Amino acid sequence: MAGAETHHILPLPAFDRPVRLLIVVAPYYLDIAENLVRGARAVAEAAGAQVERVDVPGALEVPSAIAMAARMADYDGFVALGCVIRGETTHYDTVCNDSSRALSLMGLEGVCIGNGILTVENRAQAEVRADPDGQNKGGGAAAAALHLVALSRRWSRKTKGIGFRPTGEPFRIAGEQGGKDTA
């Protein structure tokens, strides 16, 4: 059981300029969603981040809203929050897999996202995970987004040359020496 385990938690990153996070929430289970948001806000505020919130109908709409905001708005990172509780049909699998996959694909494209969409078997599991004084998965999602923003800022300062050529080294075509073709 994960609740009995201890985990290492990275300290929150420090920022030299303000961070803007958008929390995108599916409040289908309102009490659980509000606890997730409370945890996310507390962690974001502890790192000095500015936070805005938007609500969407369900977990499947969370990635769409984040994708739109990533294209059309000015946020550094995103926190995806919601809860999917297993029901009697396979809809649970579709919602869990598709929302997670969409968020992961955006992450692979460089969008800084903390995924706090709970996927649980029952309400009791969701309540424990959402509780800011318990497992605080909303806070964990905000922390994940902040860590990715910090990495993004760190790496965006670097410039890449062509291929793996160190910056400042002259570019040479195969067969050339000293800028002159030897072939």
From TrEMBL:
Coiled coil: none annotated. GO terms for cellular component: cytosol; riboflavin synthase complex. Keywords: Riboflavin biosynthesis, Transferase. It comes from the Bacteria. It holds the Pfam family DMRL_synthase. Pathway: Cofactor biosynthesis; riboflavin biosynthesis; riboflavin from 2-hydroxy-3-oxobutyl phosphate and 5-amino-6-(D-ribitylamino)uracil: step 1/2. CDD domains: Lumazine_synthase-I (cd09209). Its EC number is 2.5.1.78. It is an enzyme of class 2 (transferase). It catalyses: (2S)-2-hydroxy-3-oxobutyl phosphate + 5-amino-6-(D-ribitylamino)uracil = 6,7-dimethyl-8-(1-D-ribityl)lumazine + phosphate + 2 H2O + H(+). (2S)-2-hydroxy-3-oxobutyl phosphate binds at E88, T89, R129. One of its GO terms (biological process) is riboflavin biosynthetic process. 5-amino-6-(D-ribitylamino)uracil binds at Y28, A59, L60, E61, C83, V84, I85, N115. The active site is at H91 (proton donor). GO terms for molecular function: 6,7-dimethyl-8-ribityllumazine synthase activity. InterPro entries: LS, LS/RS, LS/RS_sf. Belongs to the DMRL synthase family. Catalyzes the formation of 6,7-dimethyl-8-ribityllumazine by condensation of 5-amino-6-(D-ribitylamino)uracil with 3,4-dihydroxy-2-butanone 4-phosphate. This is the penultimate step in the biosynthesis of riboflavin. This is 6,7-dimethyl-8-ribityllumazine synthase. It comes from Phaeovulum vinaykumarii. The lineage of its organism: Bacteria, Pseudomonadati, Pseudomonadota, Alphaproteobacteria, Rhodobacterales. The gene is ribH.
